[in-house]
Amino acid sequence: MTGGAGFVGSHVVDALLARGADVRVLDNLHPAAHAGEPDYLDPRAEIMLDDVRDSDAVEGALDGVDAVAHQAAMVGLGTDLLDIADYVDHNATGTAVLLRALTRRSFRGRLVLASSMVVYGEGRYACPEHGVVRPPPRARMDLEAGRFEPPCPTCGRPLEPRTVPERAPVDPRNVYAATKLHQEHLCEAWARETGGTLTVLRYHNVYGPRMPRDTPYAGVASIFRSALAAQRAPRVFEDGHQLRDFVHVADVARANALALALDGDGPHPGTFNIASGRPRSVGDMARALATAMGDDSPEPEVTGEFRLGDVRHVFASTDLARAGLGFEAEIGFEDGMAEFATAPLRGPA
User: Fold this and answer.
1) Between the N and C ends of the chain, which has fewer C-beta atoms within 10 Å?
2) Do 69 and 201 meet the contact criterion of CB atoms below 8 Å apart?
3) Residue 326 Rama label (left phi>0; alpha psi -120 to 50; beta)
4) 8-39: per-residue pLDDT in tens?
């Protein structure tokens, strides 16, 4: 497993070990994410502290391996476009180095890629007159005026957000999203040309223990949790009504075990949304977390701020994951947020 020391990756390691797998982790403990080797790594896993962009390291890590879970990546929106070369280097080049090593070894086993819902860009929308439409990126002028909802590109009428199926067109709208889609395309090319089995898991908004804190690359749940722990009001961008699908990391880890055929029959080739199937607003999440952290927690503050790389609504259809992977999220939103309110986070890098 690449990236097995990270937030999601470490939970996948735990899930695989619990199912009797032998696990080897390749992770470079990138300084933007780690202050050192984390204390939650299970000693039963073999740990190789090296880089997926290093051909020799990857070749060594693949000795005796019959399945690969590729979790390693720079994540999040980052700080600004000055991060662009780092995202491409770690996410695209790292994936290419891994695929080259697999090809040299004539690897025909299972490859599971951790992808993301960010490849969709905006979610799926329907206009009362024109049916399903794809709105263009929101204009800065509209966002500055507080017009956050994307209108119909044909008639300008309000749109109704709908669930996004895996067959929806992809439309990455920031650097991270572009590199995740590039990872998918590279892995799909490898699978076609070699006959290897590829499963792509498009994670939605994952939260849970071991999320990194106090970093611009952290997810919104971690940012809100850190603010509340410091008795600061979480700053909710836009109007707080933007919809997401928050899925607990334990469910994501179980999805990986299914994709690696450790929880049933397999393999399961294809692309699957990994989500709860129950959308919530960002404001709902901030309020649920504040409630779970106690009566003295500050109320979330809706600021009207925005980031041009953000999209308005994106939440998943989970029908294909249920039918093709046997996956259905088990941890509900309220229970998950109550646990997350006191769960240990990874310290700042």
Assistant:
1) C
2) no
3) left
4) 999 999 999 999 999 999 999 988 778 788 99
Query: Whole-model pTM above 0.85?
Result: yes
Structure tokens belonging to residue 113: 């890629």
Integer Cα distance of 275 and 244 in angstroms: 10
- Which residues, 6+ apart, have CB-to-CB distance to 203 below 8 Å? 8, 114, 115, 116, 117, 247, 252, 274, 275
Is residue 61 classed exposed, middle or buried when 0-12, 13-18 and 19+ CB atoms within 10 A define those classes? buried
Find the distance separating the first CA and the last CA of the chain, reported in whole Å: 22
In whole angstroms, give the CA distance from residue 230 to residue 287.
16
Name the catalytic one among 87, 120, 125, 176: 176
SS3 138: coil
The burial class, CB within 10 Å (0-12 / 13-18 / 19+), for 239 is middle
- Pick from 172, 322, 340, 327: which is nearest to 249 by CA? 340
Confirm if 199 and 268 have CB atoms less than 8 A apart.
yes
Torsion, Cα of 155, 161, 162, 163 (10° steps): 140
Q: 176 catalytic, yes or no? A: yes
Per-residue model confidence (pLDDT) at position 78: 64
Of the listed ranges 65-69, 262-266, 269-273, the one predicted with least confidence: 262-266
| Neighbour count for residue 108 (Cβ, 10 Å) | 12
Within 10 angstroms of residue 17's Cβ, the number of other Cβ atoms is: 14
Per-residue pLDDT of 311-320, as tens digits, reads 999 999 999 9
The stretch 170-190 carries a mean pLDDT of: 95
C-alpha span between 206 and 191 (Å, rounded): 27
